[in-house]
């Protein structure tokens, strides 16, 4: 009976050790899975970040293009207005010169 008790006690120690090893292995597997998931998430976030950045750059390019078109139209309007003003001034100066000679 004592011999059986010693064997059972030894088996209990082995079982504790096996539980510890299994727990460590399970924790290790969980940790590896968590790290792999974290790596996947980082990769997805990087890809999303790159995509968002590329989209933002494209939108910025479009906005700059539209702004350039708007400024070109304004510039054309200003050139037309300046030409009209110049024609008015030139016409007035010509009349003044002709009336002062006459």
TrEMBL record:
Residues 7-98 form the DUF4795 domain. InterPro entries: DUF4795. It holds the Pfam family DUF4795. This is DUF4795 domain-containing protein. It comes from Trichonephila clavata.
């Amino acid at each position: 009976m004592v011999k059986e008790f010693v064997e059972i006690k030894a088996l209990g120690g082995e079982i504790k050790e096996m539980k510890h090893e299994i727990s460590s292995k399970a924790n290790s597997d969980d940790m590896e899975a968590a790290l792999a998931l974290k790596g996947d998430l980082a990769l997805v976030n990087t890809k999303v970040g790159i995509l968002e950045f590329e989209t933002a750059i494209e939108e910025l390019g479009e906005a700059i293009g539209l702004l350039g078109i708007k400024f070109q139209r304004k510039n054309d309007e200003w050139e037309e207005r300046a030409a009209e003003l110049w024609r008015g001034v030139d016409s007035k100066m010509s009349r003044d010169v002709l009336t002062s000679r006459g």
